[in-house]
Amino acid sequence: MVERIIVGPLHTNAYIVSAGKKHCILIDPGGDASQILRRLEALNVKPLAIVLTHGHLDHTAVAGHICREYEGTPIGIHRADSSLMQGSSREQHLETFRNLTPKADEAVRLLYDELPEPDFFLADGEAVCDSDLAVIHTPGHTAGSVCFYSEEREVLFSGDTLLFTAVGGSEGPGASARDLRNSIMQKLFKLPEQTRLFPGHGPLSSIEREKRSNVDLRDSSPASPA
Question: Residue 39: CB partners within 8 Å, gap ≥ 6?
Fold first, then answer.
């Protein structure tokens, strides 16, 4: 079971991914905590963990809120993005959002909630809490961006690395256009073409479709230095 919930002012895709009959993995709770909580209750599942594809606020905003409701739920993020979860990161979030929207201050005000320290770090190739989701480190959008791949389900949760006919931005702190392209070409595009793509924003897709029609990747050569 995969449930998509569109949340927050930037319409982030949060995902509830089944992990047994009564549990789930929650990916990128980036806003609208009440909506996420209602859906968890309706599905009668509790999160084993909250995992974050990267540290941008539109993907992390209500992780703390969910943890307070489900006490003891651990939060995982890649070590390279862990600084974005610290209280001092507000200005970094503002800088990132200014590249995305003219209403950056309003967006951060609506989203910002003090985030807890991560409980564990996501590492390339490791399973998430003994589930069928494996971590793929895909630096580029941020230094610590990751995707989650299930070979069994043939699904990829790609965060802001790979989107529907587009790729994530590479303008913020720790971002690199070269790394982003290389992550996609050398890692994600090596997955089976039938793999369904669940991105951080926008419609769903597949690896086959993105290899064929992604407008940001028509030149398959490595990206120029960021």
Answer: 3, 5, 16
